[in-house]
Amino acid sequence: MRLLLDENVPKPLYQALAAFILNHEIEGFHVVVTNDGRQMQRPREVAAIAASGLHRIEYPHKHHGLAGIGIAIATVAAGLPGALAVLQEANGQRLIALRGIDPTSKARLHVIDPLVDPPKFWVSFSPD
Question: How far apart are CA 12 and CA 10, in angstroms?
């Protein structure tokens, strides 16, 4: 399946996806990948997408800077294989929205203070 990357796809994500595309010998475009969440609210664009027959994969991109690029890459990297598997089995056009990776520290990190909550077998050292 060949991907067409919308012009609003950030450069690092574009490079990662371009490498994926180059490693697959596929003719023609079958899927457009975009982060334009408002695209499906514009009647002419919706009509153009419907008429094209292209599958559409949207990924959320609400954060800016390095965190935003990281979230976008993680979202697409985690969701794209499953989305492409769904599209391989599809008997018609599909519109897919990938769910964003939760960037909050509480969701992404597990922090332990070994002085407060030592792990099993943790050796405590006294600062004497």
Answer: 6
44 three-state secondary structure: helix
Task: With beta carbons less than 8 A apart as the criterion, state whether 73 and 128 touch.
Answer: no
CB 106 within 8 A of CB 65: no
- Please answer whether residues 103 and 42 qualify as being in contact, where contact means their C-beta atoms are separated by less than 8 angstroms: no
* pLDDT in the model for residue 27: 47
Q: What is the 3-state secondary structure (H, E, C) of 49-106?
A: HHHHCCEEEECCCCCCHHHHHHHHHHHHHHHHHHHHHHHHHCCCCCEEECCCCCCCHH
Which amino acid is residue 66, in one-letter code? Answer: L
Residues of the chain where predicted confidence (pLDDT) is lower than 50: 24-27
Contacts of 59 (CB under 8 A, 6+ apart): 33, 34, 35, 72, 75, 76, 79, 97, 98, 100
Tell me what percent of the residues of the chain surpass a pLDDT of 70: 74
Q: Which residues contact 78 (CB under 8 A, 6 or more apart)?
A: 98, 101
pTM of the model: 0.69
Q: In terms of DSSP bridges, do strands 31-34 and 3-5 run parallel, antiparallel, or are they unpaired?
A: parallel
